[in-house]
Amino acid sequence: MKCTKCNKKAVIDSPRLCEKHFIIYFETKIKKTILDYKLINEGEKIIVGVSGGKDSLTLLYLLQKWYENVEAISIDEGIGSYREKTLKYAEEFCKRNSIKWKVYSFKQEFGKTLDEMIQKLKHPCTVCGVLRKYLLNKYSRGYDKLAIAHNMDDEAESILMNFLKNNLGISSRLGPLVGTLRHKKFTLKVKPLYFCSEKEVITYAKIKGFYHFVGGCPNIAHSFRNKVRSELKKFENKYPGSVKALVYDFIKQLPRLKVYFRTDQQLKECEKCGEPTLKKLCNACLLLEKLKMLKKQ
Ligand code: SF4
Ligand SMILES: [Zn+2]
Ligand SMILES: [Zn+2]
Q1: pLDDT of residue 110
Q2: Are residues 131 and 249 in the same domain?
Q3: 217 Cα nearest atom in ligand 1
Q4: Residue with CA nearest ligand 1 atom 3
Q5: C-alpha 5 – ligand 3 centre gap (Å)
Q6: Residue range of the domain that includes 2
Q7: CA nearest to 246, candidates 162, 172, 140, 155
Q8: How far apart are the CA of 279 and the centre of ligand 3, in A?
Q9: Residues 19, 100: one domain?
Q10: Residues 8, 28, 203: CA angle, nearest 5 degrees
Q11: Fewest CB atoms within 10 A around its CB: which of 9, 69, 229, 273?
Q12: Does 81 lie in the same domain as 154?
């Protein structure tokens, strides 16, 4: 398999490029996403959400290469030895590259690890997602942007999941610049890897030496996302280009969705914790109340 640009050995089949031309293609695509969607402006203070996996290390590596004020934040949900391993990679990477890194844990913030919280629940990913987002937003305050490492495959899964659950309104908050509502306590989230496929990110991370195979989260089997992911993978294998078509078509429709689902509601502060929310209590406080109720049963 030869590179279409120089005839050297290709490192990826679609697009068919050698190492040198793939790096140029991949980095140019991310820079273009940042510029086209105005994700990051010069001089802004950026914090990158880092799990220690290939996507987040790729994103952190590139943003700290291109911008001055870049730091990293990780959340330790407390998921067996899985998160310990990935956080070790995040810590090592930040040390090696002199990046300021901070980590917050569910145990420290909520009194329990995710493993302890979910013993009686069927949907660990819902608890994990709500509480992780809560801490990421809370501790990215003071930064101009929170950069998260969602790739094109992740976005395709989210689009499809929302369709299948009749949640088109939630899809209107997707896109490279996340969300539709603004609040002084709400840090804007951006997704610079939006147009990069998982395969491209793996290829880049392997070339740069920060791809570590740690296996999946032990809770992934319970998640609806995982079911959608495996069906989408089968579909992509049979009809290559489907994931890209889904995301590229969605992004064309997104401005219309944003208008259609526009709301006059304003974000206010949660009556319990003061974090931004549309309701009296934020999702994290509602969830924590529910978890306490489950414990008493
Ligand atoms: S698979 Fe579920 S429980 Fe595991 S890290 Fe992802 S959201 Fe959390
Ligand atoms: Zn080449
Ligand atoms: Zn709250």
Answers
A1: 93
A2: yes
A3: 4
A4: 125
A5: 53
A6: 1-33
A7: 155
A8: 10
A9: no
A10: 55
A11: 9
A12: yes
Query: Which tokens is 98 given?
Result: 């002199």
| Distance from C-alpha of 8 to C-alpha of 92, rounded to nearest angstrom | 33
Ligand 1 atom closest to residue 132's alpha carbon, by position in its atom list:
8
- pTM exceeding 0.70: yes
CATH number of the structural domain spanning residue 181: 3.40.50.620
For residue 200, what are its two tokens?
């491209």
CA–centroid distance, 9 to ligand 2, in Å, is 8
Which pLDDT tens digits describe the chain residue by residue (297 residues)? 999 999 999 999 999 999 999 999 999 999 999 999 999 999 999 999 999 999 999 999 999 999 999 999 999 999 989 999 999 999 999 999 999 999 999 999 999 999 998 876 768 898 999 999 999 999 999 999 999 999 999 999 999 999 999 999 999 999 999 977 788 889 999 999 999 999 999 999 999 998 888 788 888 887 899 999 999 999 999 999 999 999 999 999 999 999 999 887 888 999 999 999 999 999 999 999 988 865 544
- Number of structural domains found in the chain: 2
- Identify whether the C-beta of residue 267 lies closer than 8 Å to the C-beta of residue 181: yes
Q: Report the first-to-last Cα separation within the chain, whole angstroms.
A: 61
3-state secondary structure of 282: coil
Q: What is the pLDDT of residue 190?
A: 97
Query: Please, which residues have CB within 8 angstroms of residue 87's CB and are 6 or more apart in sequence?
Result: 51, 52, 74, 76, 103
128 and 116 Cβ atoms separated by less than 8 Å = no
3-state secondary structure (DSSP) of residue 141: coil
Residue with tokens 């290469």, as numbered in its chain: 65
